[in-house]
Design brief:
The complex is a heterodimer. In chain A, 57% of the residues lie in helices and 12% in strands. By secondary structure, chain A is an alpha+beta fold. A three-stranded antiparallel beta sheet of chain A has the order 1-3-2. In chain A, a hairpin with a 7-residue loop joins strand 2 and strand 3. In chain A, helix 1 packs across helix 3. The longest helix of chain A has 26 residues. Chain A is globular. Helix content of chain B is 83%, strand content 0%. Chain B is built from seven helices and no strands. In chain B, helix 4 runs antiparallel to helix 7. Classes of the chains: A alpha+beta, B mainly alpha. Chains A and B meet through helix 3 of A and helix 2 and helix 4 of B.
């Protein structure tokens, strides 16, 4: 991953993690795989960086977690979005939409901003 | 001999020793993650598969330093709240002392009222500068604590509180400010230790 992309990703990691959990509960490894897959492997981040983000989001009440042991499988900590987390994700999406639109206008040289 | 994943998890757990409950939980999660990642590698089971899984995960000290930085952000918030409460109670205790002394008069030197008043003013001023400019720094909080302790000590000695039979409400607020100064000192020390540890983890992880 390019340095600039890595820096951009760090600033949005919390929102990306929330979005990865939107489709349902998942454990850390599955969240990272989902991020890689949904970004077309553009965001190939150091996998360990997701865990501090998960813990931070849980402390903020945006995620909940519990240990789950599937039959014959390995014990995993499963994370899921809380109601507050769902709201926070929607707010971050709106905020990102406004921001990306503004930057697109600025970089694209198209219409003036704000419209 | 321990495998690579076991060694990695042990190192991470050691670096997270500042929060034993967190260390235990994260160690379990990370171990589960690394085994899953290693199993997905071609050539598993092998040391190479474990090594590749660890490389993709990142350096243990860097991960630990992120947890430590988050823990320090929380500790910083707690310390500022403790400072706010201590300052409020100290102000109330000061006013009650002054009202009481207005009736009985100072029992000791003229220097103590100056330390009492200006120590408190210095704590407020440093606290405001710290809050707006150095919120994550240890030093404004340490200076505030020192100034408050000086003010509280001077105020109590000045009034000869525990010798001259002060009224109960004056004694209780004085006891409250002493207790809160102790709580604040605990938080400031915890923050100082945490910031030092975080800096150390970052330096070693680089």
């Amino acid at each position: 991953m390019l340095g600039m992309e890595a820096e951009m990703l760090k600033g949005h990691l919390d929102a990306i993690v929330l979005a990865a959990l939107e489709s349902g509960p998942a454990h850390g490894y599955a969240i990272i795989e989902a991020i890689k897959s949904r970004s077309g492997d553009t965001f190939d981040l150091a996998e360990g960086t997701v865990y501090p983000a998960l813990h931070r989001l849980e402390e903020a009440g945006l995620l909940s977690s519990s240990w789950v042991t599937p039959p014959g499988g390995r014990k995993r900590r499963m994370y899921s979005l809380t109601r507050k987390g769902t709201g926070a994700l929607a707010e971050r999406r709106r905020s990102w939409g406004r921001f990306s639109q503004a930057v697109s206008h600025l970089l694209g040289g198209g219409r003036t901003w704000p419209a | 001999m321990a495998g690579l994943i076991e060694s990695y998890v042990r190192d991470l757990k050691r670096d997270l020793h500042f929060d034993p409950a967190l260390a235990e939980r994260i160690a379990g999660e990370v171990e589960s993650h690394l085994w899953e990642a290693a199993e997905a590698e071609p050539g598993y089971p092998s040391a190479d598969a474990e090594r590749r899984a660890i490389e993709r995960f990142g350096v243990a000290r860097e991960i630990a330093s992120r947890f430590a930085a988050d823990a320090m952000a929380r500790q910083s918030r707690r310390t500022w709240i403790a400072l706010l409460v201590t300052t409020g109670v100290t102000f109330i205790a000061m006013r009650l002392r002054v009202l009481w002394l207005g009736e009985t008069g100072d029992t000791l030197s003229t220097l103590l009222p100056v330390i009492d008043r200006y120590g408190f003013v210095a704590a407020i001023a440093t606290g405001m500068v710290g809050w707006f400019a150095f919120r994550r720094s240890f030093f404004p909080l340490a200076i505030c604590l020192s100034a408050l302790v000086a003010s509280i000590t001077a105020g109590i000695v000045r009034a000869g509180l525990f010798a001259d039979g002060a009224p109960l409400h004056v004694l209780l607020t004085a006891a409250g400010e002493i207790a809160l100064a102790g709580v604040l000192a605990f938080h400031v020390c915890t923050l100082g230790r945490g910031l030092w540890r975080t800096a150390l983890l970052r330096r070693i992880g680089q």
